[in-house]
Design a protein that fits this description.
Radius of gyration: 17 Å
Distance between the termini: 51 Å
Number of helices: 0
Strand order of the largest sheet: 1-2-5
Largest sheet: 3 strands, antiparallel
Oligomer: single chain
Strand content: 35-45%
Order of helices and strands: EEEEE
Shape: elongated
Number of strands: 5
């Protein structure tokens, strides 16, 4: 008996990141939005690295100031998820 599998992968894409500018000495809210533009479901976990910078350029020697653990079951194309830290 021959069995055929049709694997449809997810395709996760960052959409936006928003933060306040010019904040010093206090907590800030970081909001991220991403979408799955693929036809498959994404399930699992990962860490988002949060970098602080004085400009919009990520240097090659930059190190994250913190990591945020994420776990999710991400639906098919068009599903968007936001996260606030």
């Amino acid at each position: 008996m021959r069995v055929t599998f049709n694997l449809v992968p997810p395709d996760l894409l960052p959409v936006s990141v928003s933060t306040p500018l010019g904040v010093s000495g206090q907590s800030v809210t970081v909001v991220t939005v991403a979408t799955n533009q693929g036809g498959g479901v994404a399930a699992g976990y990962w860490y988002d690295g949060i970098y602080l910078s004085t400009n919009a350029v990520l240097a090659t020697n930059a190190t994250p100031s913190t990591y945020v653990y994420r776990t999710i079951m991400w639906g098919r194309a068009g599903c968007m998820h936001g996260r606030t830290w």
